[in-house]
Every structure is written in C-alpha cells, then in structure tokens.
Design goal:
- The complex is a heterodimer of chains A (114) and B (109).
- Chain A is mainly β and 114 residues long.
- Chain A is built from no helices and 11 strands.
- In chain A, strands 2, 4, 5, 6, 9, 10 and 11 form a 7-stranded mixed β-sheet that branches. A 4-stranded antiparallel β-sheet of chain A has the order 1-3-8-7, with no helix packed on it.
- Helix content of chain B is 0%, strand content 57%.
- Chain B has strands at residues 3-5, 9-13, 18-25, 32-37, 44-49, 53-57, 60-65, 70-75, 84-91, 97-99, 103-108.
- In chain B, strands 2, 4, 5, 9, 10 and 11 form a 6-stranded mixed β-sheet that branches.
- In chain B, strand 7 (60-65) and strand 8 form a beta hairpin.
- The termini of chain B are far apart.
- The relative contact order of chain B is 0.35.
- The chains are: A mainly beta (114), B mainly beta (109).
- At the A-B interface, strand 5 and strand 10 of A face strand 5 of B.
Chain lengths: 114, 109
C-alpha cells in the first residue's frame, strides 16, 4: 500500500534553533500534503495544507513565518520549525490522500525543545 | 461551527464486543473515517464510510447514518492489542478533515 515516510521520528533541539521535518510519499504522487500537530491526549490540529508548486495554506492562528512549509516536488513536503521554543514541543504528523478514500500518515515526529 | 463528538474513554473485556459512537455536525459531508492510534504513534486507517449502512472488515465494522449525523465503530473479539485511541474524522465540503478528540479504549483481561 501507499506509504508516507516521515523523518526524523524524534528530535531534541535547543531553544532558538530550527528543525526541519521531511515527509516523502514513497510510491505515489502526493499533490497535497496536510500537516498536523497533536498535543498529548488531544486530537489532531490541522496546521497547514501544502500543494506541490504553490504556497501553503495556513490555518487561522498558525504563524506561517514560524512554520515554514515547502512542497517542491510531488514526493516531498517539508515543515521547518524556525526559532523553536519549548511551547513548540509537540507531535507533528503529515498525511496525504491516495485517491479519495484513505489518508496515509507519516510516522510522526516528536519534537522536544529544551 | 463544526463539531465531532465521541466518548473520551471506554473500557471493555478481552474477547468481548465494544461499540464506539461518533456524532458530527459539519459544513457538508464527504465521507467519515475511523483511525486507530497507539500512544506515541501516527494514526492508522481503519475504515471509510460515505454511504449509509454498515461496512465490515474483519473484526472491525463501521456504520454510518448521514441523516442522523452518526457513526459507530464496532470491534469484535477484542484483543489486548486493540487498546488504543480511536479517532473519528469527517471530511467537510472543502475536503478538510475534521477530527474528533478520540476515544481511549482500555481492554482488560
């Protein structure tokens, strides 16, 4: 089946540094990639929708200059958390649809900012 | 506003059957999804309903009633590995996924 590969699975960084998270679709073309954030025991919160070759669409309240999304090819979308702070510590997940009926998730990235 | 409601937590016994309900109010409807999520892991796809009725897939079944804005996930012959959170999500008229907060299912021996 279709696979979305997300890296890294875990990252610890210092406050003020930037972290890049990659999501690759391994056997299908992901025209659209959705980026979610999930706090412990909470539901998935959509951060932004990235479309290949165009600017990402950010949800209300999500800072586009802080969470940089790039979708340069049909198989790769990246999320960069810039100038990270402890409150950015969270579980970040990407997902893409194959066809109309199933969303494939990346493995998720546990970000801890110290 | 858009809203997905599901119970916060449920407990069931190994070998038994459990039904997890989900009610929704969204702007438009383009399908309802159920996902399983183990702690610290990404969600995995369980089922998709777009028409009314029951979809059966092994030990798991999912039901949808669009007129009632209601779905349930039925898990049979429960196993300890079924202990997880179960997420209900509805795709709205803009093809955005609206997620419920998830139901934590605890399986006891």
């Amino acid at each position: 089946g279709a696979v979305v590969s997300q890296h890294p699975s875990r990252v610890i960084c210092k406050s003020g540094t930037s972290v890049k998270i990659e999501c690759r679709s391994l056997d299908f073309q992901a025209t659209t990639m959705f980026w979610y954030r999930q706090f412990p025991k909470k539901s998935l919160m959509l951060m932004a929708t990235s479309n290949e070759g165009s600017k990402a669409t950010y949800e209300q309240g999500v800072e586009k200059d802080k969470f940089l999304i790039n979708h340069a090819s049909l198989t790769l979308s990246t999320l960069t958390v810039t100038s990270a702070h402890p409150e950015d510590s969270s579980f970040y997940i990407c997902t893409s649809f194959l066809g109309n009926t199933e969303a494939f998730f990346g493995q998720g990235t546990r970000l801890t900012v110290v | 506003g858009q809203n997905i409601d599901q119970p916060t937590e449920m407990t069931a016994t190994e070998g038994a059957i459990v039904q997890i309900n989900c009610t929704y109010q969204t702007s438009g409807f383009n399908g309802l999804f159920w996902y399983q999520q183990h702690a610290g892991e990404a969600p995995t796809f369980l089922s998709y309903n777009v028409l009314d009725g029951l979809e059966e897939k092994g030990r798991f079944s999912s039901f949808l009633s669009r007129s009632k804005g209601y779905s349930y996930l039925l898990l049979k012959e429960l196993q300890m590995k079924d202990s997880a959170s179960y997420l209900c999500a509805v795709r709205d008229s803009n093809y955005q996924l609206i997620w419920g907060a998830g139901t934590k299912l605890i399986i006891k021996p």
